[in-house]
Write a structure and sequence with these properties.
A two-stranded parallel sheet has the order 1-2. Helices cover 54% and strands 11% of the residues. It is flat and about 35 Å long. By secondary structure, the chain is mainly α. The mean pLDDT is 92.
Length: 71
């Protein structure tokens, strides 16, 4: 790919100003620095590899809460 996830996320968020997508980072880089970078790029959540089923379910709950708060 010619863009990494951080760059792609920023680009997407620039394009969708009114209806902002909920972007979840999925990375093997579990450092606090990476977590901050993903947050700064506009990603709303952060999961690390290897991802577990429980983490995905919890991420969906956070997404539902995010959507509920936007109404």
């Amino acid at each position: 790919p010619y863009r990494d996830g951080l760059e792609a996320s920023s680009k997407l968020l620039d394009q969708y100003v009114e209806r902002v997508p909920y972007i979840i980072a999925l990375t093997a880089n579990a450092t606090e620095e990476m977590k901050e970078k993903t947050k700064h790029s506009g990603m709303k959540d952060f999961l690390t590899k290897p991802v577990r089923k429980k983490q995905i379910i919890e991420a969906f709950y956070r997404y539902q809460e995010f959507i509920s708060n936007k109404k």
